[in-house]
Design brief:
Elements: H1 16-26, H2 34-46, E1 51-55, H3 58-68, E2 76-80, H4 89-93, E3 97-101, E4 123-129, H5 138-147, E5 151-155, E6 163-164, E7 167-168, E8 175-179, E9 192-196, H6 199-209, H7 232-242, H8 245-262, E10 269-270, E11 286-290, H9 298-307, E12 313-314, H10 323-326, H11 337-345, E13 346-349, H12 357-371
Parallel strand pairs: 2-3, 2-4, 4-5, 5-8
Antiparallel strand pairs: 1-9, 6-7, 8-9, 10-11, 11-13, 12-13
Helix pairs in contact: 1-7, 2-7, 3-6, 8-12
The structure holds pyridoxal-5'-phosphate.
């Protein structure tokens, strides 16, 4: 029996150890350490933004971005149905209303053509979330936002190193966010980044990150913040990872291309789209969506693959299917059939940066085997 192939393994064999050792030897381990500023600076340059604010995780980055835009009671925020819960929690907690958009069946991203029909006089912002390695079609969304004077939040957690029409993801809209969870293209263990060109928004996010302490009267607060600080240890790893981003993207693309080649006769499942007119896939994860001819759903496929030594994860459960949100009375009688199909029939196979050619072959063989 072969070893089990985990769904993700990061690559940490660059300068990570060296920089971490510097932290320990210098005694700089908190958020005050020098790697934070260096990581922020280099990250901002990479995504072509004026400001970058390192935070404790990608969810925290979204929380702060939503709060910094002063989204609150009475406001509506347009967002995809098919995404992670991180996108919606602060919208709900601040008393605003999330308004969902179904996915495009081919790119799995929010279908921009459905946005305008959902705009009301209460709409305050659009949240773009790039899904699984291909960016959403940003330009039409920015046009709508401009026309209706809406703020734009871009969740680029899965888009490190990706571009839209040759411009970096994370450089669009008022404010963008990233995650450095270990399955993202670059990791800090846990971590996140907020980026923006707006001086005031950047200042607000810095303040929100640090409990809204004030420079003069430190323990007197004019606003409620959080402690979202990243440690110098995390930033040390992040810097080492960032140095290798181009290499990581090449690696991910070659993993994706190899899977697509090996799985070209797997007619029971839809593969990720390799290319659109505006971007080539960076395969954050290699997802598959079963069709009727498979004869079973994602849950069953994942069980069968586990029995064959292959790790998997399900696709996102769409927001309108979340029990916690349904119990709040949200999304009653609303349907998002594409998102539902992705949820029931979608899952992803091992796609991490440490994946070997041999493992890719074994995963592909297991897929053909379970389809028989
Ligand atoms: C991973 C992810 C997040 C959350 O990031 P964490 O660092 O895990 O909190 C948010 N949005 C998307 C699209 C993600 O993929």
């Amino acid at each position: 029996m072969h070893d089990f192939i985990p769904v993700n393994q990061p690559l940490l064999d660059g300068n990570e150890k060296k920089y971490l050792l510097e932290c320990i030897e210098s005694g700089w381990i908190s958020s005050e350490g020098p790697f934070i500023k260096e990581f922020e600076k280099k990250f901002a340059v990479r995504v072509n933004r004026k400001h970058a604010i390192a935070v404790s995780n990608g969810t925290a980055a979204i929380d702060a971005a939503v709060d910094a835009l002063n989204i609150g009671p009475g406001d509506e925020v347009i967002m995809p149905a098919f995404t992670i819960i991180s996108c919606i929690t602060q919208i709900i907690r601040c008393g605003a209303t999330p308004v969902l958009i179904d996915s495009d069946p081919v790119t799995w991203n929010m279908d921009a053509s459905q946005i305008e029909g959902k705009i009301t006089q209460h709409t305050k912002a659009i949240m773009i979330v790039h899904i699984y390695g291909l960016p959403a079609d940003i330009d039409p969304i920015l046009d709508i936002a401009k026309k209706h004077k809406l703020k734009v939040i871009e969740d680029a957690a899965e888009m490190h190193g990706q571009t839209y029409k040759n411009k970096p993801c994370g450089s669009f809209g008022d404010i963008s966010t990233f995650s450095f969870y270990p399955n993202k293209h670059i990791t800090t263990g846990e971590g996140g980044m907020i980026v923006t060109d707006d001086d005031e928004l950047a200042e607000t996010c810095r303040s929100l990150r640090n409990l809204c302490f004030q420079p003069e009267k430190r323990f007197v607060h004019e606003r409620l913040g959080w402690n979202l600080r990243m440690t110098n240890l995390q930033a040390a790893i992040g810097l080492a990872q960032l140095e290798r981003l181009d290499e990581f993207i090449l690696r991910k693309r070659s993993i994706g291309a190899r899977y697509s080649e090996l799985l070209s006769n797997l007619f029971q499942a839809q593969q990720p789209l390799a290319q659109t007119s505006y971007a080539a896939n960076i395969y954050w994860i290699y997802g598959l969506v079963l069709n009727e001819s498979a004869g079973f759903n994602a849950l069953e496929a994942m069980k069968k693959l586990a029995d064959n030594g292959v790790g998997t994860r399900p696709f996102f459960c769409p927001m309108h299917q979340q029990p916690v949100l349904q119990r709040m009375g949200l999304f009653k009688n609303e349907t998002y059939p594409v998102a539902d199909n992705l949820y029931h029939n979608g899952f992803y196979i091992p796609s991490g940066l440490a994946l070997t050619p041999n493992q890719i072959e074994r995963c592909s063989e297991a897929l053909y085997k379970i389809m028989k």
